[in-house]
Amino acid sequence: MARWRRDWESVMRHYQPGRDELLAAGLAAAEKAHGRRPERVLDVGGGPGTTAEAVLRRWPDAHITVLDVDPVLLALTATVLPHVRTVRADLGTAQWLAPAGGPYDVVLALMTVHYLPEDRVRDWYAEARQLLRPGGLLLVGDVMRDAPSTAPPLADTGVDPWTAWWTMLAGEPAMAPLLRERATALAGLVCAEFAAPVDWHRETAWRAGFSDVTVLHRRADHALMAFRRRWTADERQRARRGHRHLLRRPSLPRTTPSGRVGGSGGLRRCRP
């Protein structure tokens, strides 16, 4: 199992430039936003749990839930990270909210929202807000092109790493039952290949009830954005009565031009 997860992470780095730096920027922002290490984290479209494992290295006491539609990938998570809660759910409708649980300090979605069509992504932002504590942080990392791509194309080696990974996995006899289950779970689901610019995500998140929108990291066509869940008037009033410290809002770090911080998932899997 460890080998497949390791190879998976190599595949993701192929498609998501600067993946390690992107995640580090997001976790640092979450620490600053909360003034502490977050305790409850939801990894949406978390696949085989490689991101969750990286989160645990930084926040070893965190309670993490990995949510994905793919039973194969969730099995890889459960085998290697038995203390991580796994949830099988389809982001195609709002029905994923109930099993997801919550509330969370951080909701994380890396290379996930592009599986959904535009209208569904709009709804998903509002749904993600429901799972966050007041002041909680949503981190979304995906393809966010603000202009025609000027990045050099990925080298064409004649082998698609995504397809190669699944092909090799299919050669493992022990995986056959899970692969059959996967075929049933993903039947009829399609990948939208949705990509929108940063401004689209900023406006959509604001309308869904988020504020303090920040681009934490950018490299090539990929960006990581942070969105803080806004307080409702009732929540703010209750906090004033008994928990005034909850109203403090540390600022989020901003991205520098280099993309460094200064001062698996969703629907049917296509190539990230």
Comma- or semicolon-separated keywords:
single chain; 272 residues; Rossmann fold; two-stranded antiparallel sheet; 21% strand; methyltransferase activity; Methyltransf_25
Give an overview of the whole structure.
- By secondary structure, this protein is α/β, with parallel strands linked by helices.
- The protein is 39% helix and 21% strand.
- It contains ten helices and nine strands.
- The protein has helices at 2-15, 19-34, 50-58, 71-80, 97-100, 118-130, 161-170, 176-185, 198-207, 233-242; strands spanning 40-44, 63-68, 85-88, 104-110, 132-143, 210-219, 222-229, 254-255, 261-262.
- Strand 2, helix 4 (71-80) and strand 3 (85-88) form a beta-alpha-beta unit.
- One of its GO terms (biological process) is methylation.
Helices and strands in order, then pairings?
Elements: H1 2-15, H2 19-34, E1 40-44, H3 50-58, E2 63-68, H4 71-80, E3 85-88, H5 97-100, E4 104-110, H6 118-130, E5 132-143, H7 161-170, H8 176-185, H9 198-207, E6 210-219, E7 222-229, H10 233-242, E8 254-255, E9 261-262
Parallel strand pairs: 1-2, 1-4, 2-3, 4-5
Antiparallel strand pairs: 5-7, 6-7, 8-9
Extract low-pLDDT stretches.
148-154, 256-269
Number of structural domains = 1
Please write the CATH class name.
Answer: Alpha Beta
CATH level 3 topology: Rossmann fold
Return the string of H and E elements.
HHEHEHEHEHEHHHEEHEE
Helix content: 25-40%
Hey, roughly how much beta strand do the residues contain?
A: 15-25%
| Overall mean confidence score, pLDDT | 86
- CATH superfamily heading: Vaccinia Virus protein VP39
The computed structural class is alpha/beta
User: Kindly, what is the distance between the CA atoms of the first and last residues, rounded to a whole number of angstroms?
Assistant: 21 Å
